[in-house]
Amino acid sequence: MKLKDKVAIVTGSAKGIGRAIALAFAREGAKVVVSDIAEEEKTKEEIIAMGREAIAVKCDVSKMKDALNLANETVKKFGRIDILVNNAGIYPFKTFEEMKEEDWDRVFKVNLYGVFNCTKAVLPHMIKQKYGKIINISSIAARIGFQGLTHYCASKGAVDAFTRALALELAKYNINVNAIAPGPIETPGTRALGNEAYESFKKLIPVGRWGKPEDVAELAVFLASDDSSFITGEVVVIDGGFSIQ
To answer: Residue 14 has what DSSP assignment?
Structure first.
């Protein structure tokens, strides 16, 4: 029960890594706000079935008004915000040659502006209570180039820099800001690559398997708990050794 009675918002938690984080937080005793641009009720019902408290708030993180509503609904229900996980993100494949300005803008609106919007929305509440944990979901794409993902790689590099700078500003308020940089994680999105690509990529991972959303979720629990109170401004890679080859 490392997160007993903590109030946590997890964006992009209808499926994949976000869903796994929301469920892991609930298992550790947190009250969870499930948020997604798509249908998010299923994750909420799973958490309630555990005997934990949860609400679902639909949110397009690229819009500040949605982010403010997310924070307001959380405080209205639970009275505080202890943890924010900025997980919502997109990675549409397109070569830079084919990429248009609107493709670039869309990725940055979700992956970077979404982090800004949600952090900005919850921050007054965390400053007031002199406590908070902000966890940004980055990617190894911030440090390794991937063809067809220049916009995604650039957006995640910005998230890493944002994490380090914000951690310095918020340390005086007892607010920890860290990021998690997953590598190859098995999600509906990566499975859509097809079985041949999936198996070929698996051979490149030193530990011999794709990561699971639950692997990332356990790391998120640690960073959201008081066990990590002396860690801030870090980007923690979780990729089965892929990026150190």
So the answer is: S
CA 15, 18, 19: angle at the middle one, nearest 5?
Answer: 50
Q: Dihedral sign for Cα 22, 134, 57, 79, please.
A: positive
Is there a catalytic annotation at residue 152? Answer: yes
Please give the DSSP secondary-structure letter assigned to residue 206. T
Answer whether 0.70 is exceeded by the pTM: yes
Q: How far is CA 245 from the centre of its chain?
A: 25
The answer to whether 137 and 93 have CB atoms below 8 angstroms apart is no
CB 46 within 8 A of CB 70: no
Q: What is the mean pLDDT of each run of 10 residues along the chain (245 residues)?
A: 97 95 98 90 94 97 98 98 97 95 98 98 98 98 94 98 98 98 87 80 92 97 98 98 91
* CATH code of the domain in which 156 resides: 3.40.50.720
Domain assignment present for 195: no
22, part of any domain? yes
Domains held by the chain: number: 1
CA end-to-end span of the chain: 36
Catalytic-role residue among 91, 152, 173, 198: 152
Owning domain of residue 82: 7-182+212-236
Beta-bridged to residue 213, according to DSSP, are none
State both tokens at 165. Answer: 């700078």
- Beta strands per DSSP E along 59-197: 83-86, 132-137, 175-182
Q: What is the pLDDT of residue 38?
A: 83
